[in-house]
Amino acid sequence: MVILSIMILGFQAAFAGRLLSTVNAEDRRTVALQLAAERVRAVQLDPVYSALETRYETTEATLANFPGYARSTRVDRTVNTSGDVTKVTVTVTHPRLSRSVTRTLVLAAP
Predict the structure, then answer these.
(1) The whole model's pTM is what?
(2) What pLDDT tens digit does each residue of the chain (110 aa) get?
(3) How many other β-carbons are positioned within 10 Å of the β-carbon of residue 6?
(4) How far is residue 78's CA from residue 60's CA, in Å, rounded to a whole number?
(5) Which of 53, 61, 108, 60 is nearest to 85 (CA)?
(6) C-alpha–C-alpha distance, residues 73 and 53, integer Å
(7) Dihedral (C-alpha) 40, 41, 44, 49: value to the nearest 10 degrees?
(8) Measuring CA to CA, which residue among 30, 89, 95, 97 is closest to residue 58?
(9) Backbone angles phi, psi at 98, to 5 degrees
(10) Where are the domains of the chain?
């Protein structure tokens, strides 16, 4: 009976460890998603379409209050006979994320 109790406690400890690791990974991913969405919202709400590239194209190696996170914003403007379109891609990275979080926004000139 004692051996069975020890085995059950061992399984519970292993399960709790894996669960905690998964929760921490999802927490980091949620923060990264929020940081990307925050930047996309800022671009969407900017009233000066012609200045998007100069205002937002940047790489932030460190983010205040978010240690370990980095955010890169790329702005590509395409003007041709079809129209004027700007594509904004925001990428957030963290050393402990399995893959970076990317959000893309496409805006047409007003």
Answers:
(1) 0.79
(2) 666 666 666 666 665 556 556 556 678 899 999 999 999 999 999 999 999 999 999 999 999 999 999 999 999 999 988 899 999 999 999 999 989 999 999 999 88
(3) 10
(4) 24
(5) 108
(6) 9
(7) -70
(8) 89
(9) -70, -30
(10) 2-108
User: Alpha-carbon distance 105 to 40, whole Å?
Assistant: 7
Contacts of 105 (CB under 8 A, 6+ apart): 40, 43, 44, 87, 88, 89, 90
Domain 2-108 adopts which CATH fold? Pantoate--beta-alanine Ligase; Chain: A,domain 2 (3.30.1300)
Using an 8 Å Cβ cutoff, are 27 and 84 in contact? no
Name the token pair of 94: 């963290």
Q: 80-107 in b/e burial notation, b at 16+ Cβ within 10 A?
A: eeeeeebebbbbbbbeebeeebebeeeb
CA distance 100 to 110: 31
Cα distances (Å, whole numbers) of residue 84 to 46, 80, 89, 104: 16, 7, 17, 17
